[in-house]
Amino acid sequence: MKTMQIRSYGEDAKFEVAEVEKPEVKAGHVLVKIAASSVNTVDTMIRKMGNELPLSPEAPAILGMDFAGTVEAVGGGVNDYAGGDEVYGCAGGLADLPGTLADYIVADCELIAKKPSNLSMREAAALPLVAITAYEGLQRAGIMPDQKVLVHGGSGGVGHVAVQLAKHWGARVYSTGGGERQLALIEKLGATPINYKTESIEQYVNEHTDGVGFDLVFDSVGGANLANSFEAAALNGQVATTVAMVELDLTTAHFKGLSLHVVFMLIPMLHNFQRKEHARILSDLATIVESGGLQPVLDESKFLLEEAGQAYARLESGKAMGKVVIDNS
């Protein structure tokens, strides 16, 4: 089968076409003909940093985590899938799991689910990593109807899903963005847009919460922005973040009695830990999508498998609006 591989990691790491043996299905897995895959920030980090990240596969490597496609064969013990089923998931591209920049993937059934029936393969491929991340963060933070929820970075990959899920679960949603296009998308998704470049935290907390603060803050920006999340949260509020690799003074969080939830959705893949949760979440997400509660946003760009390098460059450019998707076949 055709794959796109990188032979060594680094800033200038290039993807090259490589023919390899088509993988054979094994127990508990399905062989999937990949129709589309999407690019995530963690994919670009692996390509650049390689062995500096403990989750990177050994080079030469087939990267890519998200995919959508059609089941071609099922392994022993698999009862929930049959040939011809359309599925989606996040099941490769790190550690010892071959990735999705390929014609086929042998995917663990505990990391996939049946594709939402009302999405194209491209749309479905855009969802798994970002949607599981948003779902897990909001649920761990105990989201409830009528809460005031602030999503930092609501036009981004994880953020645009978090906005929609929070709204689906009955919250009143607000979201920060830094440009006209970003703010327009946030509003289109059903949240009240906040321009963090022109409004201070104190200003938007006063305007939207009468100075009380938000019940739940979902921070898809993280890093130094976590301090802003603490400042925007209400007393005894909940903060969920997807980027906590930062040294930070927790004084504000202490005096507000905040609860912090750190989301790292790759744990089940890396450690074979509670993988069934990903299958369950993906199945629930499919139901939400089919009910009209979630629609992925795709960047206008289009790339073939052989153009994987250009797809990665598109995401790294910061010019993409929505998920960057690759057409594998």
TrEMBL record:
It is found in: Cytoplasm. PROSITE patterns: QOR_ZETA_CRYSTAL. Homotetramer. It comes from Allorhodopirellula solitaria. SMART domains: PKS_ER (SM00829). GO terms for cellular component: cytoplasm. It comes from the Bacteria. CDD domains: MDR6. SUPFAM superfamilies: GroES-like, NAD(P)-binding Rossmann-fold domains. Its main location: cytoplasm. Residues 10-326 form the Enoyl reductase (ER) domain. This is Zinc-type alcohol dehydrogenase-like protein. One of its GO terms (molecular function) is RNA binding.
